[in-house]
Amino acid sequence: MRIAVCPGSFDPVTYGHLDIVSRGAKIFDKVIVAVLYNSKKSPLFSVEERLDLLRQVTAEMPNVEVDSFSGLLIDYMRTKQAKVLIKGLRAVSDFEYEMQMAAINRKLDEEIETFFMMTNNQYSYLSSSIVKEVARYNGRISDLVPPLVERALYDKLGRQA
Ligand code: PNS
Predict the structure, then answer these.
(1) Ligand 1: which atom is nearest the Cα of residue 128?
(2) Threshold 0.85, pTM exceeds
(3) 6: exposed, middle or buried (C-beta count within 10 Å: 0-12, 13-18, 19+)?
(4) 3-124 adopts what CATH topology?
């Protein structure tokens, strides 16, 4: 079985993430969406809240699993017997960082292959940070995140959707 891991902060999940996850799920037998626990960033949503949102928005994808991890990604992947790492590339600006990550992950475990997918053009500007920023100032985010994520964001930020 070809198992791929799609790691990230997912704070919160956006249509850009879902584009990559759903396309990845057509290629691999199983895709594990893995939320990083010990992020250096200070998150808006707790890991449990992020897992809950991810589980709900991927409920219709039978071969997608949602999980969390801490420590090194390659160690987590070993425990899941996953050899492929899925990453979305939005623009050239993502390239340098992702190239470095792919290189270090390969150095740490040469069995791991990073599989890059170009994000749909429609979402090339999209990031969780941008969504939070727009929501914070009451901008419209319905094209950026699923409705239940939109509600969760407004609840969190104490605004009316
Ligand atoms: O959504 P993000 O915040 O860009 O995701 C970054 C993530 C989780 C993919 C990356 O930080 C990661 O893999 N962290 C785990 C630690 C690790 O294995 N780092 C790479 C080797 S130093």
Answers:
(1) 1
(2) yes
(3) buried
(4) Rossmann fold (3.40.50)
